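This protein record is not my work; I was only asked to verify it. The record follows directly below this note.
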Amino acid sequence: MIGIAPGTIIWGPKLLPGFPSTGFMYGLAYDRVGNRIYVLDAYSRAIGVYSSDSMVTSFGSISAPDTNCTDISYSSYDDKLWVTSYYLKQIWKITKTGTINRQFANPANDYPVGITYNNYRLWCADRRTALGAVQYIYYADTFGTGVQYNSPVQGYYNNRCLAYDTDYNRIVQVHTWFNSGGTALDSAGVIEYQGIPPVVTGNRFKVAAGWNIRGIEYDPRDGNYWITIPQGASTTNMIVKVRGFHTPTVGIDENDNQAINSINLVAQPNPATDRVMLSFTLNRDDNILVSIYDAIGRSIRTLYRSSDRSGKKNIEWNLKDDQGSRVADGIYFVMVKAGSDQSTHKIIVTR
């Protein structure tokens, strides 16, 4: 990862309330229905449940199916969780209260370390136990039958957890490179893959020196990633949110309207004192995401996310953030994404 720019931190690193100081933070998942994140402690049979905002408020924990669970992924179609572990080398489907619905052998059967779910398929990563062994990624059905591929990136013990970017149909994977003796962390970062078999897209970033990272999850509301740091001096057992590969960089300049392809976004009134109406035209049926960012590029509000039909759209912003508080006076940016098209517009908020 030498020469690769570091990822931009959105918030954190921060401790998770109630996470045991003797634990080892591993994989995590985002529950899109309950709006919660689930975080694994690999040293216990527990899965912590937290709010998905920057406060990461604790909502207790549920039972894990095994000690040393390494990764977890959310299934939106039936509101359940997929979990895998190193010890038993199994995959479990569990409810959000921890009840096991189903289990089967993980095709990544040497050192299972990553799992992510999308469209009734599982991606599984095998770090391998032998230093320098070829590392694998598996594309499997929901009964564990799959195809083995060599991981697109090889190194010393580097394969870690997986996440799926559902907006761009990409896989993102955490990598932690060790030295040739496997005794010291060399560097760590995130790399993006696409296709079957998976290939590197060219998107990658490193994290701060000394962060021995493990888990990653994609936040579809703003396109950014949660990452867990089980080891890292003052950052031990912390979580951080970093900018995603496809998150628009807003707030760097103040262009009134940066339209790409078919979206023509208008915000009125502007400046706004109590609310603003966002209007745009969708030229085809597509998935829409409307988000608000502050002047330094932090996502503060997800206004709208849905599959929608073509035509004129009107969405109102009441100048409040995701926590329901009115935003401070200043410059904000609304971003509309429709498929591969996007547009941003500057909004001035004043009293």
Q: What stands out?
A: The domain at 257-349 is CATH 2.60.40.4070 (Immunoglobulin-like). Residues 251-261 have pLDDT under 50 and may be disordered.
